[in-house]
Each structure stands twice: as C-alpha cells, then as structure tokens.
Amino acid sequence: MEPDRGLLRAEGVVDVGGAPVRVRLLAALEADGAPKVFLRLRRAAVNGLPLGPALLQDLERRVNPLVDLRGWPVAFPIRATQVTDRHVVVSSQEDLSKPCVFCLPAP
User: Fold this and answer.
1) pTM given for the model
2) Are 82 and 89 in contact (CB under 8 A)?
3) DSSP string of 80-91?
4) Amino acid 94: pLDDT
5) How far apart are CA 76 and CA 71, in angstroms?
6) 10 lies in a domain?
7) Residue 107 lies in a domain
C-alpha cells in the first residue's frame, strides 16, 4: 500500500480457491464525525478487469468500518482524514490545516 495524491493505492496477489489473483485498489479514507474511519473504493481491478459499482459497494460493506474506536475507553469523534506522502492523519478536528496547539512539534 502506498499514498497516491491523497488516496491509498494497493496492489497484490491473493489466493482464491488455490489460484493466484492479482488485485489493484485505489481508495480514500473517510470520516463522518463518528468514532470510525471508512474505506471508500474509487477503483478496483481483479486480474486487470475493473470491478463495477455494485461490487465496489459490496467490498466496502465487507471491510467497513476500517477503524472503529467505539470500544476504546474514550471514543473520540473522527472528523477528518488525510493521506500524505509519509502519514495517514486521523483527527477529531474538522480543519486539518489548523492543528491543535499540543499537537504541534516543539520549536
């Protein structure tokens, strides 16, 4: 898995009934204020054949929520996600351009 212009790109081979199958995915991370992060597939292909919207939605239903913090002692709301070249940022702040004071690195 690697970042790709704010999205996540993944490629690999999975075993399906004993046969190797090449899978490629392009996905976004989404937050809606719940203590969860969702994977939203933009594109997916199996052995080079693109999957249609119905199959993408079925795959999303199977893996989501990707992250679920409801069982944590403090289940804070997740309002924003961002994929950078080096990090995946998950925040309870809506505006990631204005980080909290205690989140900033020391001067």
Assistant:
1) 0.82
2) yes
3) EEEE-SS-EEEE
4) 86
5) 11
6) yes
7) no
Mean pLDDT of 49-72: 95
- First-residue to last-residue Cα distance in the chain: 32
Is 102 domain-assigned? no
Whether 106 is in a domain gets the answer no
Burial bucket for residue 82 (CB in 10 Å: 0-12, 13-18, 19+): middle
Tally of domains within the chain: 1
From 26, 18, 35, select the one nearest 91 (Cα to Cα).
35
Average pLDDT over residues 57-81: 93
| The predicted structure's pLDDT at residue 74 | 84
Q: How far is CA 35 from CA 27, 69, 73, in A?
A: 20, 5, 12
Q: What is the 3-state secondary structure (H, E, C) of 2-68?
A: EEECCEEEEEEEEEECCEEEEEEEEEEEECCCCCEEEEEEEEEEECCEECCHHHHHHHHHHHCCCEE
